[in-house]
Amino acid sequence: MMKQITDGDLKAASPAQLKEYCNALREEIFRTVSVCGGHLSSNLGTVELTVALHRVFDLPHDKLIFDVGHQCYTHKLLSGRANTFHTLRKRGGLSGFPKRSESEYDCYDTGHAGTAISAALGFAKARDLKGETYNVIALVGDGSFNNGLVYEALNSIKILGSRVLIVLNDNGMSISPTVGGMHELLGEMKGKPPLDDVRLFERFGLSYRGVVNGNDLNELLPALEEAKNDLRHGSVLLHVSTKKGQGYSFCECAPVETHGVSPSQKQSEYNAALGEELCRLAELHPEIVAVTAAMTDNLGLRPFFEKYPARAFDVGICEEHASVLCASMAAAGMKPYYAIFSTFLERAFDEIIHDICAQELPVTLCIDRAGVSGADGETHQGVFDLSFLSFIPNLTVAIPKDIGEFRAMLRASADFRGPLAIRYPREGSEGAISDVKIGKFEVLHSTMSDITMLAAGERCLRIAEEVRGNALAEGLDVGLINARFLRPLDEELLLSLPQNTLITLEDNALIGGLGDAVARFYRARGIEKTVLNFGVGDRFLPHGEPKELMDDFGLGKADILAAMRKHYARG
Amino acid sequence: MMKQITDGDLKAASPAQLKEYCNALREEIFRTVSVCGGHLSSNLGTVELTVALHRVFDLPHDKLIFDVGHQCYTHKLLSGRANTFHTLRKRGGLSGFPKRSESEYDCYDTGHAGTAISAALGFAKARDLKGETYNVIALVGDGSFNNGLVYEALNSIKILGSRVLIVLNDNGMSISPTVGGMHELLGEMKGKPPLDDVRLFERFGLSYRGVVNGNDLNELLPALEEAKNDLRHGSVLLHVSTKKGQGYSFCECAPVETHGVSPSQKQSEYNAALGEELCRLAELHPEIVAVTAAMTDNLGLRPFFEKYPARAFDVGICEEHASVLCASMAAAGMKPYYAIFSTFLERAFDEIIHDICAQELPVTLCIDRAGVSGADGETHQGVFDLSFLSFIPNLTVAIPKDIGEFRAMLRASADFRGPLAIRYPREGSEGAISDVKIGKFEVLHSTMSDITMLAAGERCLRIAEEVRGNALAEGLDVGLINARFLRPLDEELLLSLPQNTLITLEDNALIGGLGDAVARFYRARGIEKTVLNFGVGDRFLPHGEPKELMDDFGLGKADILAAMRKHYARG
Q1: How far is B19 from chain A (nearest CA, A)?
Q2: Mutation test of the interface with chain A: which of B121, B326, B350, choosing the one with the most A Cβ atoms within 10 A?
Q3: How far is A487 from chain B (nearest CA, A)?
Q4: Pick from A404, B63, B483, B504: CA 20 to 30 A from residue A546's CA?
């Protein structure tokens, strides 16, 4: 555990001392992330920048907002959290993202890209309306500068007329390398006097300052002081160039691989299967294309991008645009696969409804990190996707029971002619590749008893198997069904079930998920069944181990078993 | 009914004949919209531009995509739909928006802002991959140029490397006048040689051409021919200046008021109450601010904007940014009211979850045009909001029974300290302003019989009252409850209800709405009730009269009455 460095220490430090502080911070981050997992290279890259911000500004009176927030570790270490930093990303410990509940130094929670400038403008406007005087700083990576929300915020600087400092942390990377017109523009600004391009930012009401080496305090501190001074007169964009992974050569050389580090031994990953299957299908189906929003590697699509570069598109952190691109390519005869993390798909909700589903276009959404996803916490828990996909007409929603079934679903998808969503967790087990028919469940254990379980997805099936084992040990026999489609449900099977008590399990919010769907199915037909639902309760899930979280927040085996015993006793 | 003009006619026409065609089209649009309602001034402004596009390009081989799509009337008249144009926006008649199901000239359905450039890129990319040769044109208003999705598309032009023509129809308006940095930039480009700003578009891979008077075919036709020629070498932005309402002086002078025209005699409007109440509350609560996304007038906020200009923000068509702005202002101590149409709120879904609700910030969402909204069709039916708000933790969702209750809810909201959504239709009846307690239903008719109805919102309560009247006439007594909160439900009341059969009514999708919530409530507690749900079935609702649509797609009185009779007979 490192000694707590305060902003007072930073303000009093000599250049040599500051450098020592940076070394200590960098070591502490490396040590902790090696144990706890987390975002490594992005935090290594921003040590000096964060130290400079804490030295030059008066936090928490001044407001510092981190875009995405995965680069806030130095900030946490500097704001009274050095002694708890070893709890990073652990249940009950520090979050890997800014959290207002954790410290007054965290003024605004983030987690998804592109919100910081909007949030800074909100704070600045509130400050002006209330006659307060603090500075507001948004720290934004160049990856987010591709995102439409950042542009919307830039566009409104003049409308709102409240002063903010935007520090553009330009390391040429999102999780994947940054792409697109804005990226090229920023890149050229690094190389030469950026006369034309400076004008662009001026148009939006920003005075431009840059480019500063963000890993060199000798450049950074005076530049930040000047920016702070300019901020008295208007909004400022300070363009800072940093090196992702700075200080650890293997991180500098592999910023994608060291963006996020996981401490645990990994099981097989669904994303590898996605890459393999899409490569295989693309050979047979020339109309297949793949689209991602700055997540090529995390989604397993690197092999596809390498094998089919002309049919693979990383459009940057642009979830909405990616959706419309898929819809329109489908309208023009292509077969697009759009791979994305569950919570980031929320950004494309409107386009899924109107562009993809209302037009009944054959776009396949490959939704990774679905369900309880663990250590990244609230903003990354994929526990709403079944709920927000459940009511969209024309959409088919599939939930594979393992990687083999995921492969089978992908194979079946190639000839499927409507909008399709397949949601799956990060890790899981392999398993046989057998045929999957759209809208057909699989009976895993049939029973003569009055209770059967319907479980969706690998983790819930595993819980169900364990509960079933425990029940059997007590002499209670229960059936188990792999409920692998939310839409359509397997109507034939549901109608044929003799059991009166059905128990549903899903790693999704209880509201709007599989449990509601099954209960609604019987209710609409006037069929009396007792349907008991287990899933995530009505709350935001904090960070922690998925298994623990599921156990504590709605999918505890003891609770399921207790419900079973109770209903057994009745029957 | 006007004579059908074909693209062949246009291509063969003399300048004088073209002008006559334009006059005839303009008259036909004016005449039809006067009867059927619809978008008036936007269509009057784009007659020449559409005629020029049809003359210069080879439709439907070439693909013309309308952003938003509310300006497609001339296009419909020119593409074989002159003889059905009198059915515009009527049930079973022509849609007011492009529809692939209607004509091969409509290659991509639109309705929400900002999708056209993404869609054009998708078509262009598919064309190139398939070795086809058509041109792709996106017609985009300057209002959409504020939208983040447009920026995301611009940013990916270089990534995708497929040629598109973007025709920027710059009339200085969204529905409200366009605002922001991009608007200023475009405005200056109209006035002088746009050297710096041209560079911006070049950065994004567009060669810039402009500015052309889009209401003058003598300027427009050669410019479009040149743009078409340039398009062989790369993507082109053609900047066209048009006058919204062109040709009808009262439309030119009042483009906001004549943007959309409604043929029917109006009832009272909820939006007027919103403006009045917010003005009233703002006097007492200096922390109240109001935010809209380019819809100030349609949402009734004009009085607030006039009375409190420093506390009122129209940020342009930027639904995401508006949400984050509200969340952050709330985090900084303000009390924001964000008024928006139901379907446009889908664009801010992610930010409602993570910025507003996960942080439990006191933002009030005033959701207008909720429920079946009629003549605008699929993209404007507010029938998903209860579903997509139902599962968001920390959110309170209110559904007023009339304008009086809406006023009461707004008054109660001023001291409410969490995220709150109030959803209401466009029109309704006044009604008394009496106290509303959060999470408390209102019993309108109690009954000794075994059936009671729970109805949400004015229109469903009206249906319920009528059904109840019919039932009483048959000797069946049924109760009626104003279920004015989806979250939280009135648990105390629900637990105390003696009836075994409950009937829910909502002008929302059945999946994920009030009916599911009530059934889930009892199911979770092991209480046996028969809960019958009436609402919108699992499909996209076409355009038509709201009353007719509700009758046909899930809320028919005869069906409800039949269900009641059946359960009465049982009981």
Answers
A1: 34
A2: B350
A3: 11
A4: A404
- pLDDT category at B250 given cuts 50, 70, 90 is confident
Angle B327-B330-B333 from CA coordinates, rounded to 5°: 160
Q: What is the ipTM of this complex?
A: 0.97
pLDDT of residue A192 exceeding 80, the answer is: no
CA nearest neighbour of B464 among B322, B564, B339: B564
> Which pLDDT score, from 0 to 100, does residue B252 have?
84
User: Domain total for chain B?
Assistant: 3
In a domain, A97, yes or no: yes
Residues in contact with B296: Cβ distance below 8 Å, sequence separation at least 6, in sequence order: B176, B302, B305, B312, B314
Rounded CA-CA distance B352/A350 in Å is 13
Q: pLDDT (tens digit, 9 = 90+) per residue, B263-290?
A: 655 678 999 999 999 999 999 999 999 9
Q: How far is CA B349 from CA A365, B114, B115, B353, in A?
A: 18, 17, 17, 6
The answer to whether residue A435 sits within a structural domain is no
A393: nearest CA in chain B? B539
- Residue pairs spanning A and B at CB distance below 8 A: 364
A39 and A161 share one domain: yes
Mean pLDDT of chain A: 95
Q: Which of A328, A329, A346 sits opposite B349 (nearest CB)?
A: A346
Is there a contact between A324 and B118 if contact means CB atoms under 8 Å apart? yes
Which residue in chain B is spatially nearest to A199 when comparing CA positions?
A: B196
User: Do A334 and A197 have their domain in common?
Assistant: no
Please give the model's pTM, rounded to 2 decimal places: 0.97
Q: What does the pLDDT average to over A501-516?
A: 98
Domain that holds residue A298: 268-428
What are the residues whose beta carbons fall under 8 Å from the beta carbon of A137, sequence distance 6 or more? A53, A57, A62, A63, A64, A65, A120, A164, A165, A166, A167
For residue B164, being part of any structural domain is answered with: yes
Asked which of B373, B395, B428 is the last residue of a domain, the reply is: B428
* Residue at which a domain ends, from A428, A455, A475: A428
Name which of B126, B154, B378 is nearest A332 (Cβ-Cβ): B126
Q: What is the DSSP string of B386-424?
A: HHHHTT-TT-EEE--SSHHHHHHHHHHHTT--S-EEEE-
The answer on B226 and B95 residing in a single domain is yes
Amino acid of residue A92? G
Same-domain check for residues A222 and A316: no
Give the model's confidence band at A194: pLDDT under 50 very low, under 70 low, under 90 confident, else very high. low
Do A455 and A407 share a structural domain? no
pLDDT of residue A571: 58
- Is residue A2 in a domain? no
Q: What is the pLDDT, as a whole number, of residue A255?
A: 83
Report the gap between the CA of B428 and the closest CA in chain A (Å). 27
Average pLDDT over residues B171-185: 81
